């Protein structure tokens, strides 16, 4: 490509071996070594243009200038998590803009990135969608801590298990399956950590806010015992909303071993005695609910008894009136 037979060229003598009668010549040495200026010209982070000179299974070699080539490793071709063969992205002779990642002058190596020369898809995603937006996607994977959902090209978000349902679930598979099409709410975009947080339960609105709006301290509700702990009992008020009944509010009498009296899954009446909307905490009382119930039953009994007494009194009055009339008639007859 450079020389023809009979062509006269200028060269540089590199070595002379008198014993073997050999002379080593160099042609490229006529010009300065381009690698001497590489550290100044190709600093990490800079974007440069080059030409694709060869493609391999592990990447693409890019000629930046005569005598200087760099390598785009296969992992730096695209932002996709799946490895894509260089031949599907580039072609020999193609001019490309790349970003310098690392320079090793001693070994004449330059690491280049093709994907780094373009904005990260997440940056474009953040420009396109705002927190709170509703998105449609497909479930790609389920783990113990949540579900991954593909919501845009090369953009996967995580629905943490706590954001799948207002109900407590042990595994995402209770509500979702791989391949399922779902609508989700965008909760957060972390550009630094390159993470997208999604929510499924948020589609239903905030059930806590609705609960605090509807209920008030003093209300008596039917609850289900969820679990027993050292300081009391957690109860499910409704799917997704729990409250606590402290040991002092279990019964009028002190209960040494609550597990002998209360069973998980059992339904009971409980009175709301404290609500903290800011921290989403609800305190209830079995003791006060039972006391209120007894008061109502006693009041109802008194009202019933009062009605009976009043009726009896009326009958007695009528009987007295009748007796008085009879006596008067008898006295008149004697006269």
How is the topology of this model organized?
Elements: E1 12-17, E2 22-26, H1 38-41, E3 47-56, E4 59-65, E5 68-73, E6 95-104, E7 109-113, H2 121-128, E8 134-143, E9 146-152, E10 155-160, E11 181-190, E12 195-199, H3 207-214, E13 220-229, E14 232-238, E15 241-246, E16 267-276, E17 281-285, H4 286-334
Parallel strand pairs: 5-7, 10-12, 15-17
Antiparallel strand pairs: 1-2, 3-4, 3-6, 4-5, 6-7, 8-9, 8-11, 9-10, 11-12, 13-14, 13-16, 14-15, 16-17
From the structure above, extract its key features.
335 residues, alpha+beta, OB fold (Dihydrolipoamide Acetyltransferase, E2P), 3 domains, five-stranded mixed β-barrel, five-stranded mixed barrel, 17 strands, 21% helix
Determine Rg (CA atoms, Å).
43 Å
Strand order of the largest sheet: 3-4-5-7-6
**N-to-C span:** 162 Å
Q: Which blocks of ≥5 consecutive residues have pLDDT under 50? A: none
**What structural class should be given to the helix and strand makeup?**
alpha+beta
Structural domains: how many:
3
- Roughly what is the average pLDDT, rounded to an integer? 86
CATH class of the largest domain: Mainly Beta
Number of helices: 4
Q: Could you give a short account of the major beta sheet?
A: 5 strands, mixed, barrel
Helix content: 10-25%
| Fourth CATH level, the homologous superfamily of the largest domain | Nucleic acid-binding proteins
SSE succession:
EEHEEEEEHEEEEEHEEEEEH
